[in-house]
Specification:
- 31% of the residues lie in helices and 22% in strands.
- The protein folds into 2 domains: 20-437, Rossmann fold (3-Layer(aba) Sandwich); 531-654, GMP Synthetase, Chain A, domain 3, CATH 3.30.300.30.
- It is built from 20 helices and 30 strands.
- It is globular, with a radius of gyration of 24 Å.
- With 656 residues, the protein is of the alpha/beta class.
- The longest helix has 17 residues, at 117-133.
- A hairpin with a 3-residue loop joins β28 (554-564) and β29.
- A 7-stranded mixed β-sheet has the order 5-4-17-16-18-19-20, sandwiched between helices. A 5-stranded parallel β-sheet has the order 7-6-8-11-12, sandwiched between helices.
- Bound molecules: ligand 6R9.
- The site of ligand 6R9 has 20 residues, from α11, β20, β24 and β25.
């Protein structure tokens, strides 16, 4: 990595104040209130978090130290005893929420289920006893490889209840990816299903588990629990495989939540390293519970009338923090959807919003760009008037996609929260609070109270307003990752030593490039590994891509650098077009010229390639690393286990 900062060339100056109707009922309802909270947290972070922890969560035993910070290791609420399953379930049972819908689930074939808090509690307790019967004890890691069905959330909460850390592996990952993760985590048991529905087809999960385990490829796994979902015939290995419904039927519903140490591991979740093996991100109990609770409460402005829907998968951190733990800890109604927009019903998301009266909708820019391509007639044919708040996560959102989301889905009535955060951070870090901070399309806006975010050069010095640099956090926060599972040295190197500590002060390096504007708004410019160096200018990917996406013919774009003897690198753009747009020389010229007129000659792509789809991770992030190899005509190396659809790469190769 080079230490020269990243240059910013984006020209985006629109601003959207929170709508008055929204502000009238918002929990945090003015910029002054946000600033007050921020200042309070900044002046004394420990007191700020301790007061919230005492007020918002149930503790079996109080902590005797709020923060023990031995860089880069933080311990929060030292010696406090807590259980997140208790905070998500039991404590609501003594209130009117006992019979409130906790989880609404809609399956892709159209089946549905609703669990009240009392029902969910019962299922979780029973399943926790099933785990115990199979010999799972406190500290044992449990692998979860499931479709998006209620049992996935039940399994997570049951593990948390007995103190068995879970390791959820996304249901779309291959058998090999599953095997590596189970082995790394030394999982004792795997919970899966016969299959799940996605895009009108069955994803054969149990078959993948069988392949992953082989005859003895994951020696630590003794038992496999299988939910019957898709009902095709599957082999069950006697002694190892058990049907969920058989064991759940007879299980006792009495299972008190285990008082966990605040710093006991809650889960490990693997995140892709761009090279090398995936990192097991470790989160612990008390701090994570508090941080996801508070961010859910303030960022989504939750109240008891809300039907809240996050479209992520539970195999992703967003599913952990903002489908399961954050919403349930707040006593909210969380909606879970099994499928994805598909040929047989491209408007299925809008059907779900209409059917359940969804009020808060949280999705990813990649999904929004796909909605745009599918056409606005789909949402317009449904009643979306229940919506009051929208959110995005996963990538920087291109301003034009933001405007579409605001206009077509939010009907200019709903604020949009653009939430920047990472698997490693546990919860939202830079995000607007919807009743308090005016939105600027493409900016994640401001740090959450207690988050001391900054933009610095490689020496750790703050850069001037509007100069690009590296996004860092200067002080620990309760939701931060504690280590890389089994590789603390990698934790230190990756996150805490890229920017050398100064006077013993460590800063957390997020791996993203960003700039802060004159109003204190943060603009994330993409991963620093993806920066393109043209004639000595270092350009982030987001701004060039957003310029391309702002052309009416372009649905999606990814830019990468290709080695160039004169300029260092030349910009190569991979572009997906809107339907019914034809490729010809004129279009190529027009698009290059469009980038020049939007952001300047420096960013003019040398080459534009068209494709039906771009290579993405399962969570929807464009894998520019692979495009970079393609553009340079090199073989693709490094980890590709997180790629969603391998055929996309083959097609791109053929088109070359
Ligand atoms: C939650 C999640 C983390 C990386 C992160 C950044 C990108 C996520 C973003 C965003 C700009 C946002 N990212 N949200 N970039 N604006 N609102 O996505 O976690 O899968 O670990 O990815 O995603 O590059 O560093 P994870």
């Amino acid at each position: 990595m080079v230490s020269t900062p990243i240059e910013s060339i984006l020209n985006e100056h629109r601003s959207f104040a929170p709508p008055e109707d929204f502000v009238a009922n918002a929990v945090i309802n003015s910029q002054a209130e946000y600033e007050r909270l921020y200042a309070q947290a900044q002046a004394n972070p420990e007191t700020f978090w301790a007061e919230l922890a005492a007020k918002e969560l149930h503790w079996f035993q109080a902590w005797d130290q709020v923060l023990d910070w031995q860089p880069p290791h933080a311990k929060w609420f030292v010696n406090g005893k807590i259980n997140i399953s208790y905070n998500c379930l039991d404590r609501h049972l003594t209130t009117w929420r006992k019979n409130k819908a906790a989880l609404i689930w809609e399956g892709e074939p159209g089946d549905s289920r609703t669990y009240t808090y009392a029902q969910l509690h019962r299922e979780v307790c029973q399943f926790a006893n099933v785990l115990k019967q199979l010999g799972v004890t406190k500290g044992d890691v449990v692998g979860i490889y499931m479709p998006m069905i209620p049992e996935a959330a039940i399994a997570m909460l049951a593990c948390a209840r007995i103190g068995a850390p879970h390791s959820v592996v996304f249901g779309g990952f291959s058998a090999e990816a599953l095997r590596d993760r189970l082995n790394d985590a030394q999982a004792k048991l795997v919970i899966t299903a016969d299959g799940g529905w996605r895009k009108d087809a069955i994803v054969p999960l149990k078959e993948q588990v069988d392949k992953a385990l082989g005859s003895d490829l994951v020696p630590s796994v003794a038992n496999v629990l299988v939910v019957q979902r898709t009902k095709q015939t599957i082999p069950m290995l006697p002694g190892r495989d058990h049907w969920w419904h058989d064991l759940q039927k007879g299980a006792s519903a009495d299972c008190p939540a285990e008082p966990m140490d605040s710093e006991d591991m809650l889960f490990v979740l693997y995140t892709s390293g761009s090279t090398g093996k995936p990192k097991g991100v470790v989160h612990t109990t008390g701090g994570y519970n508090l941080y996801t609770h508070m961010t859910t409460k303030w960022v989504f402005d939750l109240n008891d009338m809300d039907v809240y829907w996050c479209t992520a998968d539970v195999g992703w951190i967003t599913g952990h923090s903002y489908i399961v733990y954050g919403p349930l800890s707040n006593g909210a109604t969380t909606l879970m959807y099994e499928g994805a927009p598909r040929a047989s019903n491209p408007g299925c998301f809008w059907d779900v919003i209409e059917k359940y009266g969804v009020t808060i909708f949280y999705t990813a820019p990649t999904a929004i760009r796909a909605f745009i391509k599918m056409g606005e007639h789909l949402p317009q044919a449904r009643d979306l008037s229940s919506l009051r708040l929208l959110g995005t996560v996963g990538e920087p959102i291109n301003p034009e996609a933001w405007i579409w989301y605001h206009r077509i889905i939010g009907q200019e009535r709903c604020p949009i929260v653009d939430t920047w955060w990472q698997t490693e951070t546990g919860g939202h870090m830079i995000t607007s609070l919807p009743g308090a901070i005016p939105a600027k399309p493409g900016s994640a806006t401001k740090p959450f109270p207690g988050i001391l975010a900054d933009v610095v050069d490689l020496e750790g010095n703050p850069v001037a307003d509007n100069d690009g640099g590296y996004l860092v956090v200067r002080y620990p926060w309760p939701g931060m990752m504690r280590t890389v599972y089994g590789d603390d040295d990698r934790f230190r190197r990756t996150y805490w030593e890229h920017i050398a500590p100064k006077d013993g002060k460590y800063v957390y390096f997020a791996g993203d490039g960003a700039r802060r504007d004159e109003d204190g708004y943060f603009w994330v410019m993409g991963r620093v590994d993806d920066v393109i160096s043209v004639s000595g200018h270092r350009l982030g990917t987001m701004e060039i891509e957003s310029a391309l996406v702002s052309h009416p013919s372009v649905a999606e774009a990814a830019v990468v650098g290709k080695p160039d003897p004169v300029k260092g690198e030349e910009i190569v753009a991979f572009v997906t077009l809107e339907n019914n747009v034809n490729v010809d020389e004129d279009l190529i010229k027009t698009l290059k010229q469009h980038v020049v007129s939007e952001i300047g000659a420096l960013a003019r792509p040398g080459e534009i390639r068209f494709s039906d789809a771009l290579p993405k991770t399962r969570s929807g992030k464009i894998m520019r690393r692979l495009l970079r190899s393609l553009a340079a005509g090199e073989e693709i190396s490094g980890d590709t286990s997180t790629l969603e659809d391998r055929s996309v790469l083959d097609k791109l190769r053929e088109g070359a």
